[in-house]
Write a structure and sequence with these properties.
With 895 residues, this protein is α+β, with helices and mostly antiparallel strands. Helix content is 14%, strand content 27%. The chain contains 13 helices and 50 strands. The strands form 12 sheets. An 11-stranded mixed β-sheet has the order 16-15-14-11-19-8-22-23-9-24-30. Strands 36, 38, 39, 41, 44, 47, 48 and 50 form an 8-stranded antiparallel β-sheet that branches. β28 and β29 form a beta hairpin. α5 packs parallel to α6. 51% of the residues are buried.
Length: 895
Amino acid sequence: MIRNLEFSMRSIGAIGARLDASETQIAGSASNHVCRSADICSKSNDPFQFKLPLQSCDCSAELHVFRTRVMTPPYFAFAVRLIVCFTVCIVGDHVSGHVAAAEASNQGRPNIVLIMADDLGLGDVSHHVRTQMKKEPVIETPAIDSIARESLWFTDGHSATALCSPTRYCVMSGNNNYRSNAPWGVWGTFRETAFKKGDVTLGSVVKDAGYSTGFIGKWHLGGDFRDLSNGGIYRANDRNEDITGTVDLTKWIANGPRDWGFDYDFTLPCGIQGPIYTAYENNSWYPMRDDSEIVFLNKNNAIHPKDLTSKGEGMGDSGWDAREIGKLISLKAVDFIEANAGKDKPFFLYYCSPMCHVPHCPPADFDGKKIEGATPSRHLDMVLDLDQQVNRIIKTLKAKGVYDNTLIVFTSDNGGLAVDKATRASGHRVSGGYAGSKNSPLEGGHRTPFFAVWKDHIVPGVTDEPALNQDMLATFAALVGTKVPDGQALDSNNLLPLWTGEGQFKQRDFIVQQAGSGKEVYYRKGTWKLILQSNLQLSKFDPIALFNLADNPREAKQFNFVKSPEHKTRVEQMRNDYLEILNSRVRTTPRSADVVTPHANVIKPEGDTPVWTDAKTAAQEFSGFAFLGEYVRGDEAIQVVPCEGQFYLSIYQGGLPGDGWNRGVIGHEWLDADAIAERLQGYVKVDRSSKLEFTAPPRDAIVLFDGSGMEHWAFGKIKDRLLQAGAKTKREFQDFQLHFECLIPLKPELPLAHPGRGNSGVFAVGAYEVQVCDTFGVDFSPERWKIDRVLKHPDTWCGGIYGIRAADINMCLPPLTWQTFAIDFTAARFDGDKKVTDAKMTVHQNGVLIHDDVTLPEGTGGGPSGPRAEVPRGPIYFQSHGNPVQYRNVWVVEK
């Protein structure tokens, strides 16, 4: 007979307790049954009602564990209410056999977890503060950082708008907010939803592919509740009014998450700011305590009156306590993952945390970590609360063995919240160095943490490709294989090829967005961003700011060109373009895509990669340096590149590039260290750098740098009589011939053509870049650079006109050898703001012609916002990307 029933329970502090059904043991006198996997009970629609079949045994024992709501009564720290129903077939005096764990059969499809924070700025994530701001953070976010370090991080990542509710519509629909029934938002609890019958949503595109889908957290997209006065749908006020007896708040009738693509939901209609102050699970009111009632919450009856300081009094659960919401919803996320991990169907969890929106009501502690008072401000306390929520999700994914096959995307609904004086006084900057904050059209209002993690599928690193969180609908649809109907998700771009390096990707041609309650909109084309002041009726669009984000990413007011006569035509054209887009309702994202290189625009993190800046030290410290270089034997030549612990060989017939090579197919080999010496037997090592002539400046030249001083430079540094990357001339030039010599550092542990292998570049008039980096020995042929998994297109390699044209031949010499460049440049010509002729450029590298009178149709890319603005005159700039590239013998002759 059954002698004992054991099950483990996990306390969740003031919120209550839960049954951990991951291991339920039925102990008999002779043998035990251990159930280690739970299926959703076939007798219930509740995904947290488990059916634990005792498989592969002689009995038909079946245990049903029904987890019910377990909340804290007023005078107890813990309370448990469980209903355990079980039917056991007893064979003799004992139960024999064993339970086999269920195995996942997802056909390799990943689970998906999308985490959207509330009012979280770039500066609220310590990973951004360290890696992008180069500062020590005021607070640490270890859980968020742990996945950020493994992610592809979008430095130009944005929320769809600068306000929470409109962004939530955009993410769910893949549309810009002006396509909705409320072009400015906001959807309160009782407002009519923006979704229409037949609309695809973020949930439906994944559910239609056979996923189990769950929504947890803040909704803020309206919904339907019964009007008790007439039996219809209640559409009146949701705040500062006692509507007891007027609306039935025990049941969410329709147009909640369950109606728009989610099998399971645990929903806070308006997050923690309310009203209303209630939670719903699968459309039914979820009482916060055993004695909960729905009442008109005010400062006299609220458990924690500060909960009502954001949006005011309103209907709610008498047991509402915002301090415990983070624990509650993250526990529901844990439950959802545990219920669905390892099943035949993969799962999608859309987790919308309401942190760190006001009211800032931190709990005393969270999973043993102090929260309240642990930081300089209550806002930052709430960031810690959010981080603990993320920590629970990550730990559960790993504990269930599904982390490695889960795509995790992290974002925020808008920029950081500038509301807390104590936060600013601490030195913390919520917007991460950008101007503006939540609700603002400036970058800080919508540039947010945005990154994606998927082990072995997404290369960790950084990308400056612009992306919006509303891109998730098209991206997830592509991932799971769902076709989005024509005319839907018109503003969602598929990022999957950019993430994985497989398939096709096409950039946006432009971006249109809106801010918040100030009714500003903005239009971004290339590097230029135009901000327009609109109104509630969308009847006016007055230009109020024009910024060039390439030169002014912080949007300094003194460089607002909206009233500049020089930019009058640009302002008018951009305004007209925006109005045409708005009025025509045209799609703002590409329908099709062009093939791109694997991992385009992706930069792997360099970490503590060793770097050498002089040959003598490299020869002493790096054994592979002895083999780095060029070799010839008869009419065959080899270039040897130390790379990631091996040696990469490019083999040429006829001689070296620029010195006899017949332009035929290049051979390639990868060799280990113990094989390289034997492979090079019979070859003679040559040093072409030593044969390059030192070109003295002609009499009419302006000597910009000869090692003696910095009088020609607006900024820059000298080290050991060499000019360091990151120098810009005081003087502006138009047409000129430029000569310089450069020394590229050695970073052998980075992949081939990695941008971190000595990344720099020289800009003509500040707008057109000739790339300087280490691409020695890399094959320009498309077939080969795809095989070798190089990270960027050849037009971004050494000698390339960045993003426009690759060099005719790879004339990059080995790193730590001096190389020469000669650039003949003719600037574009303008009639007012209108360009009448394109710029042109001819380039020689190491004495060999690599670009011959090339027309430049636009400024080069590489910045955060696409091509740089073309100008008639400008400085010469040696770009710094944090790599110790050094320059000498720099002179220019004006034409």
